[in-house]
Amino acid sequence: MNMNKNEFYRIKIEDLGNDGQGIGHIDKMAVFVKDTLPGDEAWIKIIKLKKNYAFGKLTELITPSPWRVQPLCEKAASCGGCTLQHMSYEKQLEYKWNKVKECLERIGGVENAAALMEPVFGMDTPYNYRNKMQFPVSRNKNGELQIGFYAGHTHSIINLEECPTGHPVNTVIIQVMRDFINKFNISTYNEEKHTGLLRHIITRTGFETGELMVCLVINGNNIKYGDVLYEMLYERIEKWKTSDEGKKYENIKLTSLMININTQKTNKILGDVSKVVRGQGYITDYIGDIKFRISPQSFFQVNPAQTKVLYNKALEYAALTGNETVWDMYCGIGTISLFLAKSAGHVFGVEIVPQAVEDAKENAKINGISNVSFYAGKAEVVAPQLIKAYGDKARADVVVVDPPRKGCDSVLLDTIVEIAPKRLVYVSCDPATLARDIKYLSEFGYELRKVSVVDQFSHSVHVETVVLMSRVNAT
Ligand code: SAH
């Protein structure tokens, strides 16, 4: 059988792709079909045909997958934020666990990975978990105000009143922003023409402290009536806290209204400069008993409840006794470094973003932690320099890495092999690159011992993993 564009085919979906599309096969050729799940049998129309794969559009569901559920959010199918809300949470977790297993075996060359894998760590209630939201703002063709999320793979905005993955206070913030924009005729950004002022609304919520930041990303240097907006937000949030729903979130308090200046024609959300309109230039929050200062630009894990689970696993795998020298590579604002410091001799943190390193130093200070030092630069460049500068004092007993999706630089892996730590704890947001790096390290005397999958991003396909590797002949 040859496949043709615009023709209809019957397909059984077997797997999920990286963006959450279902994958099935027609005549041995992989076909990606949005809005389908493994277990679905469907009629599809081929909309794009490539040499080795194709894209199909769901036209009729013949037999729905037993994994299908009604999404909580009515915009879930079109919104690019949640790609798996139509899949039961239990199956999402099973899917993520299996994905890691499959990567470890297929790419990592690990035999029987399941034997090393702990049961998946999922959320009890996989909603309202995100501490950071970024809502693009624009107007549609009819001039109607749009605040929400981008639809999958496009920049058209799905207008939202609320989002079940975020903190409920976001619903109030969106309402107030609509009122403010309308009342004061605030212009909104037009991406194509690069005109208009307001681009994004970013909110950050300290789940423990209740501190709340609203940051407006603007294509300009200032926003008029900022003080009025602060008052409007403050009053409406306080009023909401007296309602039946709001009562549950009494600790929430608007502590910061900021603007971020982004006058570039770019897909990057944030510009380099942020200014305070009212309140502080940051929020604080806790993970465990460590306090963090978080500014608009800082990377901070988005799911605080699960971050605690993740970092506790990293701590457990590091098995520190109090004397060890520890490296925390790709350390961001020093979250893992500070989390481990209380059980270690000394922690060296390395991070490429200078601003994050400043935050890390500040975070060490506000927690009174002195057995850490932070360095700005590329991990693969700074790590060998540490050894050169400090010799055995910097020679790590335990190395933690938490790289971005592309995984570790091979020079860093070589440096790790050379200094031969007893244990390596690898925190990863991409199981494929994790497996690639595990394979490499296992050729140089390291063995995979334990694996945990921690669900940080419920209803999306993203998978977070933490693994322990040990040096084979380590005592
Ligand atoms: N461990 C931190 C941050 C992890 S995100 C946490 O849990 O919060 C990955 C971090 O790696 C980002 O902060 C990014 O800026 C940083 N990074 C990216 N490439 C890097 C490199 N080559 N060397 C050092 N850090 C890098």
Plain-language structure description:
The chain folds into three domains: 56 residues, Beta Barrel (OB fold (Dihydrolipoamide Acetyltransferase, E2P)); 190 residues, Rossmann fold (3-Layer(aba) Sandwich), CATH 3.40.50; 163 residues, OB fold (Dihydrolipoamide Acetyltransferase, E2P). The chain is 25% helix and 30% strand. It is built from nine helices and 21 strands. A hairpin with a 5-residue loop joins strand 6 and strand 7. Helix 1 packs parallel to helix 9, helix 2 runs antiparallel to helix 3 and helix 7 runs parallel beside helix 8. The structure holds S-adenosyl-L-homocysteine. The site of S-adenosyl-L-homocysteine (SAH) has 18 residues, from helix 5 and strand 16.
